[in-house]
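Box 4.2: Ligand-aware structure prediction
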Amino acid sequence: MLYIVPTPIGNLRDITLRALDVLQTADVILCEDTRRTQQLLTHFQISKPLVRYNENDDRSVARCLDALKSGKNCALVSDCGTPCISDPGWKLVQEAVKADIPVTSLPGPSALACALAGAGLTGGAFTFLGFLPRKPGKAAKLLRQAAQLNHPVVVYESPYRVLKMLELIGKTLGATIPVVAARELSKVYEEYVRGTAAEVAQQLAKRPKVQGEFVLILDCFDYTAPQKEDETNEDL
Ligand code: SAM
């Protein structure tokens, strides 16, 4: 059996009782970074063999799949939050499904759901783009396509690139597009910075250093794509 086990995105008390049960009873824990996962296990006084799962290495995927095929109960974790959400895991899940190995995904922490709920935009549809591509042209194209759906658009970003990303969002969707920057969720310095893309960028830029992990939620309800001249007379 393959268990997908979410782990805290900051506050260790956010681990679920079921996640602890699975980590305690699994034969082996598959993880992104053994040192990081070891710290988590030590905190919860769990002692288990750890195997590094490297999604970019076919041999690593095959080794983990072999463990599952041999009947082992494997718990898959990532460094934080839910595996497979902008994190490794999906290849192993795919292979396990192909091999008829039962897969179960535990509910639990994810920066995506946490930030979206705290943003307070809507409880309906949204578009999650994860980490946008590094190339500004590709990122802008994805942003435009997503914004046209008029749902909240959610992106993950690091502290090193968040100002650049806000600049790109402003240039692409207009500097007045409303943005919520959810920072350091569940941690001591958790905050939601709200305003237009330009205002949020300004607020962050004023700080001596931009720190912490970010989720950006863009309010695209009122977004209208600039109409190209040759499209104005197109039949619908
Ligand atoms: N799998 C994780 C999840 O379920 O949320 C996401 C892992 S992804 C590699 C890491 C990104 O998630 C960070 O760059 C940031 O955008 C977001 N993130 C993770 N923890 C966060 C936190 N405590 N506060 C805000 N964003 C966070």
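In the box above, the bound molecule is S-adenosylmethionine. Strands lie at 2-4, 28-31, 50-52, 74-76, 103-105, 127-131, 153-157, 178-183, 191-196, 214-218.
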